[in-house]
Give the backbone structure.
Amino acid sequence: MLTLYPLARVLLLSFTATDHGFADARFVGMDNFVELWEGRGFRRAAWNTIVFALMATIAEVLLGLGLALLLDRAFRGRRLVTLVLLAPYVLSTIVVGAIWRAWFHYDLGFLNATLRSVGLPGVAWLFDPTLALPAIALADIWQATPFCFLILYAGLRSIPPELYEAARVDGAGAWRRFRDVTLPLLAPYLLVAALMRTLDSFKLFDKVYAMTGGGPGNATETLSMHVHRLAFRFFDIGMASAAALVMVICAGLLAALQVRRMMRAQA
């Protein structure tokens, strides 16, 4: 009921013109989807979502892998370092958005103060259309990299040490051990981390809402923000339902593709 009923309702409403629900709904067929595709706002939101998902997912998986490799060895204070690394992930997204919005402040922000301290000019992080989306991605990377680190660290700890010993006996150096032992056995964990972060990035809303509200202009408007704007600012429930259905289909196809690759990797 909590999953199928909302999906069925969105599916039915996506073929209607309505500003409330079924009471005043008028069947329009595929008109909502055609109007979505022809509208620049939807295409820009889709492009922003894809770019953000690629930037955030690639960076988070690579950084998570690097941190997992660094901490997959015994040293004094490893538990404390691990706890510190996990701190951003336990913060709520609104808190993270507020922190980074303050750090990105043009006059008083930490980042611009650091730039000015070394003689460089300040940067309009959240007001430059070319920098606003990467700035939000940076905040997401800061918060979500610990999630990828946890998955990949668990994967590294599950690799039997005997395999590394056998590789050393065969004369394999550090790079060959990483390439021939670590990466193949870590591939399912890498796919899981990439899948989870891609899907989470695909439905990005809260960080954008907290940091830019979709601006400047529509430079940071994602698909979730576009659906929110259609539904709760313009009260076009039919169009919002059509956009939400497109999001569900795209996310489902992406998840199916990733799961298929995971199953092939494990076969």
Observations:
- The mean pLDDT is 90.
- The CA atoms of residues 76 and 82 lie 12 Å apart.
- The radius of gyration is 22 Å.
